[in-house]
Amino acid sequence: MTEEKNRRIMKSDFAESVHQRSDQAKGLPFPPLQKELPGGEMDLVELPESDPGVVVKTDFYQLLKDRESRRQYTDESLSLAELSFLLYSTQGVKEVVGKGYATRRPVPSAGARHPFETYLAVNRVEDLTPGMYRYLPLTHQLLFLEASDQLLEPLGKANLGQRFVGQSAVVFIWSCIPYRAEWRYMAHAHKNMLIDVGHICQNLYLAAEALGAGTCAIGAYDQEAMDALLDLDGTDEYVVYLAPVGKI
């Protein structure tokens, strides 16, 4: 049964693989900590250092009480400093460890593998051209991918008619590069990855709330359409989660 197979993913199977050897145990090279950059000329955006000065809500208990999924946003733009704070809060790199094979970040990840890439569909962010970007956590930069001021329709369609997604100031889109975790955890990497991406989105909820903004986690989307929107192959990298962010 499909349900039984899917439930299996949620269970721990570490005990069953005690005699198996991962690629890490075999001494195979670790995968890159960050998706490789394209060749040729690149348009890179330097992000300001993450600054707690953009925070307007400082009472943590109140943040927890106020946190909720928000689907209505104003037409106000996010500042580049606010976007920088959100990116660092979710996938920023605090340090590279283990002779370059792992990173420590503001969110936990099994084995410090952090197998995700962050893409941004930008509608209204000060000093940024509307369009698609990829976050480079190792250098805290944005890689400009494509200009577009017509994101509402394709994002709404790819998210099964949820038009509010494309009406936000920016949409955080997380893809997964599974081998980054499979290298260490083999078949049980997939359960860990699904848990880990939840940590990322919860940090986005709290960080957005601290800015006086809001977000809403999206798990219902057209897989092929979202992968195509980011030009992903759907096998070695694919979308797993997304969340629009806007002022409220």
Structure commentary:
About 40% of the residues are buried. The strands form 2 sheets. This protein has a 7-stranded antiparallel sheet, with helices on both faces. Strands 2-3 form a two-stranded antiparallel sheet. It is about 30% helix and about 20% strand. It starts with a helix and ends with a strand. α3 (about 80-90) runs antiparallel to α6, α4 (about 150-160) runs antiparallel to α7 (about 225-230) and α5 (about 180-185) crosses α6. The chain has helices at about 1-10, 60-65, 80-90, 150-160, 180-185, 190-210, 225-230, and strands at about 45, 95, 100-105, 115-120, 130-135, 140-145, 170-175, 215, 240-245. A hairpin with a 4-residue loop joins β5 and β6 (about 140-145). It has 7 helices and 9 strands, in the order αβααβββββαβααβαβ. The model has no long low-confidence stretch (mean pLDDT about 95). With about 250 residues, the protein is α+β, with helices and mostly antiparallel strands.
